[in-house]
Design a protein that fits this description.
Blueprint lengths: L6 H12 L6 H22 L2 H4 L4 H13 L2 E2 H8 L3 H13 L3 E5 L7 E5 L1 H21 L5 H29 L17
Helix pairs in contact: 4-5, 4-6, 5-6
Length: 190
């Protein structure tokens, strides 16, 4: 990516900075490369196939979640998309104004909002997802199919570790205290 150090340069700088610091280098490299890969892929997809559709990564992920899961409560969509409910409100309103998404009140709990794709949203995803998938193939083209499967499985195990053990680990590290509330507008690393 222009204006940024290459992955090779970043690795050399990190190694020079850490020198003799006792850290788990393989694990550090794995997590750093998860982040760098996610950022590089997101940037590429936003500036290629999603740009042609005038969508942000976040908007596409919201459409994807609702497309795959069907009509869903906003809290579940926000969680699955990895965004705050406040961010989802803005994104869903934009997608609704474009005719791709419909927001409706929950039939039994007026405090809840449901999201579903419109017919236009369904058509849009059927049309755009193949182009998105072509770019997924492009960004993984240096890997064989077996390497893609292995990478996907390794990353799946990372996600499962955090999903299944992360809360207990967090409590242990914070001596049972609750984490600081997430500030509005704060972007996560992924």
């Amino acid at each position: 990516m222009p204006g940024q150090r290459s992955i090779t340069e970043a690795e050399k700088l990190a190694e020079a900075k850490l020198g003799g610091v006792p850290v788990r280098r393989e694990q550090m490299a794995a997590v750093a490369n998860i982040y760098r890969a996610a950022s590089a892929v997101r940037h590429h997809l936003e500036n290629s196939v999603l740009r042609g559709s005038d969508l942000t990564w976040t908007a596409f992920v919201v459409l994807w979640v609702v497309w795959v899961w069907g009509e869903s409560e906003t809290r579940h969509v926000a969680e699955e998309a990895g965004i705050s409910k406040g961010t989802l409100t803005g994104v869903s309103r934009t997608l609704e104004s474009r005719g791709l998404l419909r927001r409706s009140a929950h039939p039994t709990d007026g405090r809840l909002v449901l999201l579903c794709l419109t017919d236009e949203g369904e058509d849009f995803m059927r049309r755009v997802f193949p182009a998105f998938n072509e770019e997924e193939a492009f960004v993984t083209s240096r890997l064989t199919d077996a390497e893609c499967r292995s990478l996907a499985e390794g990353l799946r195990r990372v996600v499962l570790q955090v999903e299944e053990q992360g809360e207990d680990r967090r409590r242990s590290l914070l001596n049972g205290e609750e984490p600081a509330p997430r500030r509005s507008g704060r972007r996560s690393r992924s």
